[in-house]
Each structure stands twice: as C-alpha cells, then as structure tokens.
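Schema walk-through. Below, the input block comes first and the output block second. Nothing else is stored per chain. Lengths vary across the set, and this one has 164 residues.
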Amino acid sequence: MKKTPNYTVIKDTREKEGYFFKPYDRCDGMVVETMKTGDYTIQGHEDIICIERKASTAEIATNLGKKKKPFQNEMERMKDFRFSFLICEFDMDDIINFPENSGIPKAQQSKVKVTGRYMLKSLLEFQMWYDTKILFCGDKYNAFLATNSIFKRVNEIMHLENKQ
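--- output ---
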C-alpha cells in the first residue's frame, strides 16, 4: 500500500500575522503565493481546500459591518470548495460579548454599530448559506493546530480517493 504523500501549504501574500508551516510529519513546509480566495490551501488542491483565518472579533466585526459586501463575496467563492473553513482565533463567548475583549479601546466601543448577537446570526447564516465550517478555536495556537490537522485530513482523503 502506497503511503500518503507529503503536502505543501500555500499562504496568501496578504496574510500578514498568520501561521508558519515548517516541514513536520507529512507537511513539507510552506510557500507564499497570491490567492484569489482564502488565506491558506494545499499545493495541488487549490480548488479543493480553502481556509480563511480571522484573528480577532474586531476583524470579523469589520467583515460583517463596513466590509460586509467583499466578505460576503469571499464566502460566496468559498462555497465552490469541497472543504472550506473559517478559522477563528477566539471563542464563541468573545463573539457574544462583543465588543468586550475585542481589542477595541473602551472609548471607541460605544461607536461600534455591530453587536455580538448580530455577528453570531450572520456567521451562522454564512455557515448555512455557503456551506463553510466555522471553528472557534480560542487562540492562535489552537487555530494553527486545527488548520494543520485539517490539511493533514484533506491530504489523506485526496490520496485515498486518487487511489480508487
């Protein structure tokens, strides 16, 4: 039986504070390229797997507020991927209690128009409308581990399917 091949992660050029994939286990490391949709994918499976990373509730609030149309367009494109994920580096509590713990200065919080309940509603709708899975990972480290595990599973699935 042929063993599962290694994979290389592609990170989008616009992804600034993201993850670094070094050679480990089945991962051969990472390359940086411009991607039309998402922040991360696997080389050779760019049309199969798409991961969009969200670092904070402030970022997702902007995506669901001022930048809703471009974000919705991205989610629409993600619908075409067999495996699409929105990986959040915060907890569901952080969404519900927004703008608390969002990094938005206290003095500015009263100016925020987006509420936690609205964000939760929008994210759940996006998950249903666009068939994108949303993972609330708690922090950046757990989000990286989840992303890494997703890539490993997708690589295994694609290998098994290609053998048949």
